[in-house]
Every structure is written in structure tokens, then in C-alpha cells.
Amino acid sequence: MSAIGFHPHNHDSCIQTGVSAAAETCAAEGLQLTDVRRRVLEILLEKHRALGAYDILEMLRAEGMGSQPPVAYRALAFLTKHGFAHKIERLNKFVACSDIGGNHTPAFLICTGCDQVAEAHLEASAGRLSKAADAVGFTIERAVLEAEGLCQSCREAAA
Fold first, then answer.
1. What residue ranges of the chain have pLDDT lower than 70?
2. Hey, which residues does 110 pair with through a beta bridge?
3. What is the pTM of this model?
4. Nearest to residue 74, comparing CAs of 91, 60, 90, 89?
5. For 133, phi and psi rounded to 5 degrees?
6. What CATH class has 3-158?
7. Is 108 left (phi over 0), alpha (psi -120 to 50) or beta?
8. Helix residue ranges per DSSP H, the chain
């Protein structure tokens, strides 16, 4: 399991790679990556932390891209539906997918100190949840794991 989000990396490359992957997927599937949808994805990729719809709306408003809540909610609905972003249910906030176009089960590691979110990729078919579901004849269609704790930087700062 590898986690993306708590270690230093090239944000410009991260943003460019994520937006390019989303654009390629949209082109292949006949979907529209509008300017607002693209910008919301860029915002999520830039921040590497969970953002609420109203946080995103404030950024869009400041850039002249809309000021009504449906603007952000529609963009987020599109991005999550197509796997470009994920909703962190526990926080009612959103993060960009760290593996756009990949087929994975996300696990979110949420730092309670700095609010950063790292996305780890799990193999759903190999875990305990899958075995428990199999035992009762249940087929898992979607699973999301969310864990709260402290990242290494926040642990070191608290020490």
C-alpha cells in the first residue's frame, strides 16, 4: 500500500498529470470537462486536503467562475461520479483522486493536525471486508476506508 499526500512531491506535475488523465478519460468516454469542472479538479489537486463545496465555491467566486452553490455542487458531482475526485464521507468534503483512471479501492488517511489527506490504494479483494462479504454471499460494489490520525510531520511537531 502506498500513500500519496504526506510526502513532498512536484505539485505542478501532480496537477498536470491529474488534469491530463481526466481530459483523456473524458475524451474517450464522450464526457465534457468544462472550464468549471477542470478548475475544481485543479483546486482539489493543488490543495491536497479535503475541501468543502463552499470552500471551493469561494475560490471559484474569487476567480469569476460562479457564485451560486449549484456551480460547485454540479462540478463535484461530475468529478466524483467519474472517479476524478472522492468524497470523504466523515468530513463531508472532497479530494482529488490520486490515481485518475486507475481501478482501485481508496483508503483515506486524514491528519487531524494539519487536515491533509493522503489516499492509499488497497486491494479490495484481498482484505478482511471482502472475506466477510463473501462469507454471507454479499458482493461489494464500492468501499471506502477512512482513518483519522496524525501524519509524521504533525507527530514530530507535537513531540
1. 1-11, 102, 123-126
2. 117, 148
3. 0.81
4. 60
5. -65, -45
6. mainly alpha
7. beta
8. 11-29, 35-47, 53-62, 69-81, 128-135, 152-158
